[in-house]
Amino acid sequence: QVQLQESGPGLVKPSGTLSLTCAVSGGSISSSNWWTWVRQPPGKGLEWIGEIFHSGSTNYNPSLKSRLTVSVDKSKNQFSLNLSSVTAADTAVYYCARVSSKGGDYWGQGTLVTVSS
Amino acid sequence: EIVLTQSPGTLSLSPGERATLSCRASQSVSSSYLAWYQQKPGQAPRLLIYGASSRATGIPDRFSGSGSGTDFTLTISRLEPEDFAVYYCHQYGNSPPTFGQGTRLEIK
Lengths: 117, 108
Prior knowledge:
Oligomer: heterodimer
Distance between the termini of chain A: 39 Å
Shape of chain A: globular
Number of helices of chain B: 0
Radius of gyration of chain A: 13 Å
Helix content of chain B: under 10%
Number of strands of chain A: 11
């Protein structure tokens, strides 16, 4: 059974960098899937952030692209998100997910990140 | 970017009734890459349907998906109490992937 677990600071200061890691267990990050980040502001809908393939190929949300880096560490079976120059609008629950040809079939439990001084 | 518009925003029904949720795309979506999710408060989204009409593992057969091109539908044949939640459609065949804004299914 594949499991994903997000980790990282729950509080980030404005203009700082939001950094999260998603640890994958029960399966290899080198499998043919897109490893994806999705966020959900409080009380709002889902927003796709970006994704990475094990080869390192990435796709980013155009609205976040200038601030966003998604990377993969195959040796640790994990992938990461870095979002720079954050503002209160970046406050959200951040999810990592595995997206295959069969959709987003495995998700982390989500982690709330608050941007505040 | 493909915009997915879900309707209605909120659907009020009673247990045992049939629910029909719509997802309309701003341009054609490959049916192979259209999914539906259920989300309950405090939980991650749960995959229900992929490929527009294939049920994910463990999903009851009262959930069904249909559609092609720009119009897709999620149908719940007979609502159970645990089905009241928010539902999202998701296209992942065109970059960037996008989600609909969600339909809230509430108990009448």
